[in-house]
Design a protein that fits this description.
The protein is mostly helical. It is built from eight helices and no strands.
Length: 183
């Protein structure tokens, strides 16, 4: 049976470096995407991402299971991002409109250009709507979608009340659904 995140973090706190490796492998992708989509600059995201993991490493001796590990980790990420924005006078920025370096899919037997065009247009509407979301709503959406957090976990990670987190997520989802709905 595979150890849960909280047990791995407790093992790491007690000196098991392999436990940290497992945690890192489990959460590196989602955490990096969250940071990248929050700051939208790869170099800055990589720097912040490393700082978040370093803060988690530094805080290991104080780690206590009070919530899910991901809630604890994304609280560290949220706090680091807030520090970053305050220091630079920035606001939360968002989702890359297109990942650079990805090849276009090859046309197959079922290739339908009009469907690909519709999909690209829908994605563009989604990206514009995502860009237009207030920072708190974008963050709630990313924590829900990238980290798989519940409303309670989002509230805990961001220091917001549960009702505020629920409203932020609900408004974000509503605006994004409206943007991608067929006209």
């Amino acid at each position: 049976m595979e150890a849960g995140d909280e047990q791995l973090m407790l093992a790491y706190r007690e000196g098991d470096a392999g436990a940290f490796d497992q945690l890192y492998q489990r959460h590196k992708g989602a955490l990096f995407r969250f940071v990248l989509r929050s700051v939208r600059d790869r170099a800055t995201a990589e720097e912040l991402y490393q700082e978040i993991w370093m803060r988690a490493i530094e805080a290991r001796a104080r780690y206590e299971v009070q919530a899910k590990f991901t809630t604890w980790l994304y609280t560290i990420a949220h706090n680091r991002l807030v520090d970053h924005w305050r220091k630079r006078g920035l606001t939360l920025v968002s989702l890359d409109q297109e990942e650079s370096g990805q090849a276009e899919p090859r046309a197959g037997a079922d290739y339908e250009p009009h469907r690909m065009l519709e999909a690209k247009q829908t994605l563009a509407r989604f990206a514009r709507a995502f860009e237009a979301l207030p920072a708190a709503q974008r963050e709630a959406f990313l924590l829900h979608e990238e980290a798989g957090m519940s409303v309670a976990e989002i509230a805990h990670a961001t220091g917001a009340g549960e009702e505020a987190a629920k409203s932020r997520l609900r408004y974000a989802l509503s605006k994004l659904k409206e943007a991608v709905a067929d006209d």
